## 1
Amino acid sequence: MSDLTKSKIRQGVLDVALMLLVVVIALAIALVFIAIYGVSPGRAISAFLQGAFSGNFNLGSTLSKMVPLTLVALGWIVAFRGGRIQVGFPGQIITGGIFSSIVALKISLPIWLHLPLAVLAGMLGGGLCAWVAAWLWAKRGVNEILSTLLINLVMAQILDWWVQSPFHDPSTPLPQTRALPTSSLYPVLLTNTDLHWDIILLPVAVIVIAFVLARTVWGFKVRVCGANALVARHSGISPTRIGTQAMFWSGALAGLAGASLVLAGTTPAMGEVFEGGVGFNGIAVALLARNSPWGVIPAALLFAALAQGGQVMQATVNISSELVGIIQGLMIMLVLAATTMLYLTQRRRRKGPGERELVPPPELRGAELGATP
Amino acid sequence: MVTEIRGGSESHNEASGVPALRLEDITKAFPGVRANDHITLEVGAGEILGLLGENGAGKSTLMNIVYGLQEPDSGSIFVRGEEVSIKTPHQAVAHGIGMVHQHFMLVPDMTVAENVALAPSLTPGLSRLSEVERELRELSKRFGLQVDPHATVGELPLGARQRVEIIKLLYRGAEILILDEPTAALTPEEWRELSLFLRSMADEGRSIIFITHKLDELFGLVDRCTVLRDGAVVGTVDIENTSKAALAKMMVGREVALRTERPIVEPGAPMLEVRDLTIEDGGRTLVSNVSFTVRAGEIFGVAGVGGNGQNELVDALVGLRPLTSGSLRIGGQDRSDLDPKKFTQAGGAVIPEDRHDEGLALDLTLLENLILKEVDSPAYSRRGLLNLRGAGDHAKTLLREYDIRAPGPSVAARTLSGGNQQKVILARELSRNPKLVIAFQPTRGLDIGAMEFVYRKLNEAKLAGAAVLLISFELDEILSLSDRFAVMAGGRFLATLSAEEADPERVGLLMGGEEQP
Amino acid sequence: MISFAAIGVGPFDTNLLSQALILATPILLAGIGELISERAGVINVGLEGMMLSGAFFAYLVDWKAHSAAIGLLGGIGGGLIFAVIMGLLAIEAGADQIVAGVAITLAAIGLTGFLFEQIFQNLQQITVHTVHSWSIPVLTKIPSFGPALFNHDPLVFLAFILVPIAWFLLFKTRWGLAIRAAGELPSAVDSAGISVRRVRWMGVLCAGGLAGLAGADLSIVQVGIFHEGMSAGLGYLALVAVIFGRWKPVGVLAAALVLGGTNALQLRVGEQPYIQSAFWGAIALIALIWLGFQARHRNAPSMTLTALLVVAGVVLLIVQPHISLTQPLWVGFPYAVALLVLAGSRTAARMPSALSVPYRRGQS
């Protein structure tokens, strides 16, 4: 048994080292881009670090950016563990935000009721948005990757319309909603910062998701479906039902993120671009965390720091914050390459000749495109 | 005793002396395993060489090296006396080496001609299918292999696909043919045709390496036989001077009982009653009007060649596929609207055909795999939460009882060997004291030791009063375990025989679809 | 821009036809490339990013070189950069193709945005040289639809000529045999002595190059400018076109026309103060054609849905309600149609069996 524990620890250390390597390489490439544009890397790094961590305001912004990233990453993990690759987080965040804005603006209640109701509405919205894709997959055999991508595009337009027509604030030409009442907003945790009370969602959500996946029967069934859908069917577990549920909850987490973006934003209104790329970056966070709920915390911190530091860097040393997008894309690519290589070397070390030739291992297979189980 | 003739040339049909293919000192190590350990063997022109060994003995690795799919750590390959380097299948083809893989390398959606035309070419030119078709017709006339170049491969029976594989090699000009366990999907009749054909190929001067782990197939076909065990050559024998028992001993390293004892029990109440079961899918009838009864305390076998409706029958019996018509009773209760959950609740256990695809979730731990089907029971979960302690104790007991070699219950199922993985499935299914056991190809890909274990456990289940339905493509397995058995061909049961009245000749003809031999 | 006479009923005139062809072009170009890639077993969700990269680099090169023709090459190059990354990840490393595609799209959005801001931030919006239209001599003279069909920029013609070319390559050449086999059973390709990696690389590069060209079509052919995120989901529509086209060149053509037509219709109807009756008529008609198509495949449940759509279209045609939708909702319309199209067609069975499965030579 101690051998087993040791090898698991060694495995964990290796994983962490590999991810650190990925981060270092991605940042190094980013520095090359910075150097090309004539900014000294030293200046850029110090501007970045100050922007991300220095002072209450910057630190508060970084922490506050972690919350939606963490929630979306957990959403990806729930669906992915159930064998579903849904990439509809942007659309689900938007739907969540819209649902929250309805409750916030159309109902007036005391805060202890109003805020929770607005947050729950956001979860429901995100869940429903994911459920549409889940239904199309389960009943019509539509590949959930494509359907969620298309739903993202549709939802982006619906949001456009939403903040221009029915919920538009007539006092401003900007595409945004009227100011949301304070009773529906997360209270500020640290004055003069963007840090709101929704930060408590961060540890709570991580613990809940980690516990659900590891210790509950439902989580177990989700993992069985993700590991082998046919075995699940043999065991009386329906991969379509569990997959649909996993997608719903995945979307609900994204909706929760959307509620945070709207109800704990810099301004108390929902604008046209409130999603701000969180949907896809959350996927990157989950991948960097290697789909472990606990790993999401450091990975989200890194991404939040990148986003916050990048903004400050743009303002101070005039480097476009779009650079952050390059870094994020690069990190996913490197994580993919690194984990695949790691997997292969381990497999070779452990097993030697495989039993069946020419059949790739299931975890390297993509999603079963379009196929209804 | 075995006469060992290493590299002997006495039995070569041609006396020229230069072997068509010679492997010298081939070594290939995977971390932890030495798959090929200084292997030397040769095959002459016009000779058929048998390559015998258990699963995992290194046969396939060796042949993959010859075919350029893997590189050896050391050793040399000589083709017609010249040393060659084979790093890709392309080079192997260029040296006139062709291989029929265990799994057919044919694209089901393409026609026979298209499959044959799939070949490396320097010019990105037209596929010129009509020329390929013409040549194919000539080849099939010349060798008496019936193949329709226009047919879509996916619609051909397995025997015909095998002919396509072989004719593909001939089209590519192969002089040295390697056949990796080619008989798994053949009826006895198709096998007879294949062996005649191979002989005529050899008589034309081609060399053939015939890989198998079935002793029967060697006699009457090969000239010599090289036996591998644990990656090394045990010996090469002239087939005329040896016996089945001697080869078996070389292969396994000890005396083996080739037949297991069949315990006789008085059968009890009917546990599985199937009446007029029919399964249709997309307009095709896959199983038609099958009726049988399996009683407590008996093993009922279903013999037949793969792809004759067995998969669909098993899927229907465990509730994965709806019946088109007919009825199904388990333990005396009507279960025509079965689903896997009801099957398990009715006391059903299943050992599926493919342990990787259907039996185990390879990335989950042994513990998780062992409680898969009972996770909702109060022993392993309470109010939606897993009871990890209860499950852990259960898993540890099973690891001990079923002799599963693993560091502990928390390792991933993927890390186990094939035999141990099968034991995990047996442990999960049989430890529930099932009333009905459906075992589909339960020894597929296992070595003899693990096979004996499976047989013992199935017999134990029978003695404990379970009804056992054994579906197998290996006739030997059916004959040595079943009390009664049916022969399945074309989706129908052609005859039901008792163990006493089974005559391999007659069963063989039935498997080929001959109804009244 | 379009100077010839428009003939037709309400919004349905020859201008619409011409516009539909123009809007179908990028979908068709990228779709044909993706078709080849998927036939070879690699699904390319990064198509969107490759298109965006093509649009930007075409614009950049056009601006620097003062030539739209060289700009087109720049666009192809822009697509190929990310195709190479896709190949390294999906073919060499054997990584999950879908996640790799998402990463590529993210990186392309980042890279084009970054470079655009860094290079052009202090400059006014620059319009670069665009590609001139060609008119096919005699055919343009055909009354009514002649100009709408035969007076276009060369990429429109190229896209449509690519359809028979792709068909010929895939189904009549050895190259096509290898591509198709690599998507169905790569081990058969390997065993035949053909390198699966090489075959799949060709597929991925085809997809990247053509997606880049499609991007160039957006930036330097259609408008002459670039703006961030200008591919706006067209790459995803190309993916839909491949699925809806059942992995066949002619099918991709039909799907691209439907999606391009929807887009043209959306632009046109969005301009009107309220939805005109002809629109409802068109919906009823399209649904009716679709119904006939489904009847051939005996797809009962979706036939009911389509039949309801026909009835709804006819009812609305008769009632003529004054409904108006705002611009954003019309922009979302083609994507919603694509979603319906996916839901209404069961095509999973036609999918290449080894699509998205990395190939690794067995060790046994």
## 2
Amino acid sequence: MANRGRDALDRMTMVHRWDCPAVASEPALPPAEVADVDMAAPTVLRRPYDGLRRLIGQAAGLLLLAQASRQREIVDLPAIAVAREQWKEITAELASLNAPQGCERHAAHLVQAARLIGACLDALDAAAAREVMDVSLALDRVAAAYRLAQSCSIERLGLTMVDFRQSCCNCAPMKARA
Amino acid sequence: MADYSIWVLEYAFVTKYHKSGVLYGAHNEGYVKLPYCYALIKGKNHVAMVDVGFNNKEYGKTLGDRFGVENWRSPKDILAGVGLSPADVDTVFITHSHFDHFGNVEDFPKATFYIQEREIAKWVWAMSLPDRMRWMMVAVDPGDIIRGVDLARQKRLFCVNGSLENVLPSIDLNVAYDSHTFGSMWVHVRNDGKSQSSDAWVLAGDLVYVFENIEGPGAVVDVDQMYVPVGLAVGSQENLVMATEAMMKSVGYEARRVIPIHEERLKDRFPSRITSEGLRISEICLADGEKSRVR
């Protein structure tokens, strides 16, 4: 079973590009009728969800800097060590997570996304060791992780990939303005 | 002689935006309409954009339901208003990485993008901070950064480290560190082609939201006008004021030449028209031989 899972993961991250429809069309998980979801879900899921969102952002930013600058030194930045440390913490947290009722698949996707982030950081290391810097594999992995995390988003529980609360559009929620 | 035409193109709007968001200290002063726009620069055989807006597919429902963003239209529809299509755009300057400026790169298949390196580097840092500091991470979508990596892989995105002169002929990029965002950029168009231009324009991104950020009431300190920074700054208001001074200096202190793209009243200052879709086109200037798109 474990091998089959790993094979599937490898196929998804290595055969498909991140924008391949087969990956991109990762079925969005039930948009979670909040009534069906254990009340503990926001508390249980938010920490690892937000942690993964931030890790995805860090990894993507590092890849962008590495690819745009072609500087191998990117992999020696303290930011990489910080990302790896946070990845370990989130992985450990996810390992001991009791998925709330109605959110079992969300939890599974988060676990899968965390594995992809680890694989992304490994791929970035490997890319820096090559003669020509190419972050394509790392990009595929972080993009797949993003898709998985995005599929776990439950806006009404505050799990969203973009925090709009202080953004240009935020003139307070509609309800408050009505 | 003018080399470039510049239009500000509205692609969505919020009817009621709290005024304190656009003007520091304007608490309890009600609401203003906030148009969402990008700018288009055409001339010298180039079509360039300043920012690309956001992708309604990703955010539209959330923005509409929760924040009242209305009437989003695609770049294809919007650029048609000035006789162009997204495929005509060869260059895009991303002023900063907020979703409503950097959130739709996919719609510009032939463009090369420029963004400040610090905007990305400090984003990485901000994302490493604990949740209690997440205020500094707002409004940026990791998905946009991922799309940026793909562009860089295709050699279609470049990180700029500081100012850059003549990124296109007589168009310069300037940076305002730690202001609205970590590496907000403003675009300087020297429309007469001269290094000391007397016909320069500034596309200010979100360093300036409304006219009052530059021409604010100064009675309280006994001056006619003074700079009042925008309400939202990840960096400091000091840096916003200094950036405003730099922008104003670059246009000979002629305030109308600093273009705030979120300013609804551009229509009162420049020739404008409302399209059949209820969105505004403001014509900032026309290159020699270019026909008006608003008359």
